[in-house]
Write a structure and sequence with these properties.
The complex is a heterodimer of chains A (241) and B (403).
Chain A: E1 2-11, E2 14-24, E3 29-33, H1 40-47, E4 55-60, E5 63-64, H2 69-74, E6 76-80, H3 92-102, H4 107-120, H5 136-148, E7 154-158, H6 166-181, E8 185-190, H7 193-199, E9 202-207, E10 210-215, H8 217-224, H9 229-237
Chain B: H1 3-18, H2 21-54, E1 57-62, H3 68-79, E2 85-91, H4 94-99, E3 105-109, H5 113-118, E4 125-128, H6 134-161, H7 186-203, H8 206-219, H9 222-226, H10 232-264, H11 283-310, H12 314-334, H13 353-364, H14 369-395, H15 397-400
Parallel strand pairs in B: 1-2, 1-3
Antiparallel strand pairs in B: 3-4
Helix pairs in contact in B: 1-10, 2-6, 2-10, 7-10, 7-11, 7-12, 7-13, 8-10, 8-11, 8-12, 10-11, 11-12, 11-13, 11-14
The chains are: A alpha/beta (241), B mainly alpha (403).
Chain lengths: 241, 403
């Protein structure tokens, strides 16, 4: 479970995240929607403990990100961008192992999990190939494995499908569904309504650093009197600018 | 900060960079190959130049003074005295002849030189040379020495003929004795070796440093790294150690390259002039100098890490770090001509100059322990300051997430 409690982030004088509070339940997929620059990445970076909140906090599977960031990290896996977080000159297995070791996972457990993940993502053929020599799709799968090698309870995904072609997007969506089936809590940001509609249990919309709406799609559609997803987004965001 | 995490990061970074052929080539292989070529080439051409000045001194008469008597005089009195002097055909255009390498020097003798010589009057020998050409200007002194010897021989002849003791011609006999503690061929090494060591250890880590933070930012690998259980300090220290390894490796490969040149041709170290030797191979001084070098490398690894953290992208990192190369070059070149006995105490307190001074002393056969210890004490402070700067930058969200 993720609990955001009056989370605020200021950069110099600019207020990037303005007092955001909401909860993502265990095993739930919540889509964080907003235009570019709305504060999605900053929110996710705070939850991943990369940035320290100016005020407020969040609990990641019960661990406070401000009081105990190191412990909070072991509960969280991140995938910022589609195929990020890989070192080209390391093999896929070495990449996965590096992140496993830095998350204090014993080597034998890393090996065992890598094997399992290679089966899940169909990576056995290229596990020992250097990441730089792989196709985009293969790299993407390696990134997924890298993100969950430490078996986190929570996954934070920042625009994981941006700039991807149709089949790559499908792989990401399958990955998200795999996570859901494993009972993981997923918070992912997007600015594509259709994607959110397809995957999310609920959506939260942020605009200019503020939370402007949260609920299931049906709830939001009903509240704003429209069935059209794009129109709903414009109503939620456009009307407030 | 956990040692286990530092070690994991260090191991990974080392593997990553060793697999990068570009970095490996520029940091390790290039100096190993280029140093021998450079030294052998510079040493060879300098040796050649020295030979040009003393060997094969071609002397021609001008056509105006080209008489059989004049030629015979040159052959008999000069070429016989010094086998390196060769009398060649007379020339009408002295400048052109020197340019065309027909002669290094062109001489003109008084028309009545024989009569003057017979009546013990001084004769005039005009020596035409081109000062802009080393082979010609250098040959003048060789000719001059031969003429001096000739003068002495004739004077002895004349004095003896008068029934006097030729010793009256030399009232004072000078006996120069070299008491230098270092070989006369150490000069080139004293000028270049300390400068090279100081520069390489300061900039050798640059390719690694650029890649390790600025490169990670660009490839978006830094974000997942920062969300692992390894704290920022562990990640920083792992990277810091890697940069250090490359700083020292570049020095070692350069020294290995120089050693290779020495094995191939020992005279390449002294540019073919003079003998090497007389180094202050006092083990303690050498160890202290190596410690100073290590500390200099650590100081600059900290600076490089800070600059790489400040940079938004790999390219920006390259720009900042190449500027650092110039910062290092200024003091290094400025003190290139400083000799071991001219090293001042303050030089031991300034990064780069401290390493240069230490090695200049060793090569010059002088040891100043106050200076060496002062250099170590101040270097430790610099190491901490630069590491603190790097860690402050690494912990600043403003610099880590600049984009």
């Amino acid at each position: 479970m993720i609990e955001l409690k009056q989370l605020v982030k200021k950069f110099d004088k600019a207020l990037a995240v303005d007092n955001i509070s909401f909860t993502v339940n265990k095993g739930e997929i919540l889509g964080l929607l907003g235009e570019n620059g709305a504060g999605k990445t900053t929110t996710l970076r705070m939850l991943a403990t990369m940035l320290t909140p100016t005020s407020g906090t969040a609990l990641m599977a019960g661990v406070d990100i401000v009081k105990d960031p190191i412990k909070a990290r072991s509960r969280v896996g991140i995938l910022f961008g589609g195929e990020s977080g890989l070192y080209d000159r390391l093999t896929v297995a070495e990449n996965i192992r590096y992140f496993g070791e830095l998350n204090d996972i014993p080597l034998d457990v890393i090996k065992e999990r890598t094997k399992k993940l290679a089966d899940i993502f169909d990576m056995n053929d290229y596990l020992d190939k250097r990441a730089g020599k792989l196709s985009k799709g293969m790299r993407q799968k390696a990134s997924f494995a890298r993100a969950i090698i430490h078996d986190p309870d929570i996954l934070l995904l920042d625009e994981p499908t941006s700039g991807m072609d149709v089949s790559a997007i499908r792989d990401v969506q399958d990955f998200i569904m795999t996570l859901k089936n494993q009972g993981k809590t997923v918070l992912f940001s997007s600015h594509t309504m259709s994607e959110v509609e397809k995957l999310c249990d609920r959506i939260a919309v942020i605009h200019k650093g503020k939370l402007v709406a949260i609920g299931t799609l049906d709830q939001l559609k009903q509240e704003h009197g429209t069935d059209n997803m794009d129109e709903l987004f414009v109503k939620l965001v456009g009307g407030k600018s | 900060m956990k040692f286990k995490h530092i070690w994991t990061v260090f191991k990974k970074e080392l593997t990553d960079i060793i697999r990068d052929r570009k970095t490996l080539m520029t940091s390790i292989l290039a100096p190993l190959i280029l140093m021998p070529i450079l030294l052998l080439f510079v040493g060879g051409s300098s040796e050649q130049m020295a030979r040009e000045m003393t060997e094969n001194i071609t002397v021609a008469l001008t056509t105006e003074s080209n008489t059989p008597e004049a030629r015979a005089f040159l052959e008999e009195k000069l070429a016989k005295q010094n086998p390196d002097i060769i009398i060649v055909d007379a020339v009408s255009d002295p400048w052109q002849a020197i340019q065309d390498k027909k002669a290094k020097l062109v001489v003109e003798l008084d028309k009545d030189f024989e009569a003057k010589l017979a009546s013990a009057q001084p004769i005039k020998m005009r020596v035409l040379y081109d000062r802009s050409l080393t082979r010609s200007s250098g040959a003048v002194s060789t000719l001059q020495e031969t003429v001096n010897a000739l003068n002495q021989a004739i004077a002895v002849e004349r004095v003896t003929a008068l029934g006097l003791d030729p010793q009256i011609l030399t009232p004072v006999i000078t006996e120069p004795e070299n008491i230098a503690r270092s070989g006369d061929g150490n000069l080139f090494m004293m000028m270049t070796l300390p400068m090279l060591i100081a520069m390489l250890v300061s900039i050798g880590g640059i390719p690694a440093a650029t890649d390790l933070v600025a490169g990670e930012k660009e490839r978006m690998t830094l974000e997942p790294l920062l969300t692992t259980r390894a704290g920022k300090m562990s990640i920083l220290m792992g990277k810091y150690l890697t940069i250090n390894v490359f700083s020292f490796a570049s020095v070692l490969s350069t020294l290995a390259g120089m050693l290779l040149a020495f094995i191939i041709k020992p005279s390449s170290f002294s540019l073919g002039q003079g003998q090497l030797g007389g180094f202050a191979l006092d083990p303690l001084a050498l160890v202290l100098s190596l410690i100073i070098t290590l500390l200099l490398g650590m100081t600059f690894s900290g600076v490089q890490l800070a600059l790489s953290t400040y940079a938004r992208s790999f390219k920006e990192g390259q720009t900042y770090l190449s500027l650092l190369t110039f910062v290092v070059m200024i003091p290094a070149y400025a003190t290139m001509a400083v000799m071991s006995n001219e090293v001042q105490l303050y030089m031991f307190l300034i990064p780069i100059l401290n390493t240069i001074s230490a090695f200049k002393m060793i090569l010059g056969g002088v040891v100043n322990y106050t200076g060496l210890f002062a250099a170590i004490a101040s270097s430790v402070v610099y190491v901490f300051l630069t590491l603190a700067l790097a860690s402050w930058m690494f912990n600043k969200e403003k610099y880590m997430f600049r984009s």
